[in-house]
Amino acid sequence: LEPYQTKVNNELVHSLHKYSDLAQQYGTPLYIFDEESFRERVYNFKNALENPYFETELLFASKSVLTLAIAKLISEYGIGQDVVSAGEIFTGKKGGVQPSKMYFHGNNKLDEELAFAVDQEVGTIVIDNRMEADRLNNILEQKGKKQRALLRLNPGVEAHTHEYIKTANLDSKFGESVFDEKIEDIIESIYNYDNIDLAGLHCHIGSQIFDSESFIKAADEMLHFAQRIQTNLNIPIREINFGGGFGVYYTEEDKPFDIAEFLPNFIEHVHEKSTEYGIQLDKVTIEPGRSLVNNSGSTLYTIGDIKQTVGGKKYAFIDGGMTDNIRPALYQAEYEAALPNKINEPVKETYTIAGKACESGDVVINNIDLPQVETGDLLLVNGTGSYNYSMASNYNHIPIPAMVHIDGEKSYLTVKRQSFEDIIANNIL
Ligand code: LLP
After folding, report:
1. Whole-prediction pTM
2. Which of 20, 166, 202, 225 is the most buried (most CB within 10 A)?
3. 327 annotated as belonging to a binding site for a ligand
4. What are the residue boundaries of the Orn/DAP/Arg decarboxylase 2 N-terminal domain, all occurrences included (predicted)?
């Protein structure tokens, strides 16, 4: 359970809200997002970044979850936004984020997206590769503008995580490799573009990382590389963005490290190493997504049919599934769940929680021990705050669920449940 979840009699309650009341008021499936815990995590990260050596900025990787309401919170908390498409820039700005506080990432940003970012005055563009730098400079030249930028590097640090969410191996599609024999040439030509102000470097070594040593290793590689660039090319590296990727708790097997403990040590390490290497860093940035929001989110479903297979499996079907949470099907991700209206009842049986999509892989939880499950029961899956809503789909024309925010005693709708009309809104007959 999360700190905002308590047991009252035989019911699980979110702050002051009974899950059964939320289901009644907003319907299921329902994404529930807790603002208080999000706020707390933002301030924990911010505090942990404070230091006497250089400016730091916390960015929120908005690919993890982005709505107008989330963008509004980002702007209210005074943090920056990591965006990866013109769509995310658009939504962030609509929600109140200042484009100057955005970092625009991604490989193969389209010309239209680069032009849009420049027009919107996005603060920093994180260049993925040499061709992109070329395209960006042309766009800037035409517009007579200058753009602050970082270059994404692949420092070749292996983090132990799922193959699909590793980003820094030698064959990664992201960034330019520090091992590329042309890397100095690439950096020099970007630096020499008249319209690009190359402020520094970026890396992101992967996602859902539990080994804090990987971040230290990446920092060492990046600073060592910065020294090489400074020595060989006389190009100053003023900012390094170390990406996101801090692991979170989904199930008992996950052992995340404590950010409040780790970050001050990390900053100290970056300071020591940069001093040793003679790098005058003005700014250090990080851009977590999952670790800021994942455990603020949960999804509430209603149990439908229950089926015993001849093979010995007992299915409990829910009114959502892979269309609102693709992660189990895509990454074999695991989740914990509870029956909020039977929270004190003893475990009775092992169930497989499956969705309603036409796909055998549409299983949200394989083998979970629960009290007796009956049709009409609510099922709450925790840890769905990141990469659930943002990866939702309309497969089988199943509507994307509503989202509700809880802030203490307040609850309010931030995303309406999709209607069938919404699903076909762009269809032409
Ligand atoms: N910065 C960059 C450049 C990234 O590519 C990512 C994630 C982040 C920051 C944020 O990483 P986080 O702190 O959230 O781990 N859909 C997958 C995760 C894909 C992550 C992609 N990049 C999942 O559901 O696990």
Report:
1. 0.96
2. 202
3. yes
4. 37-293
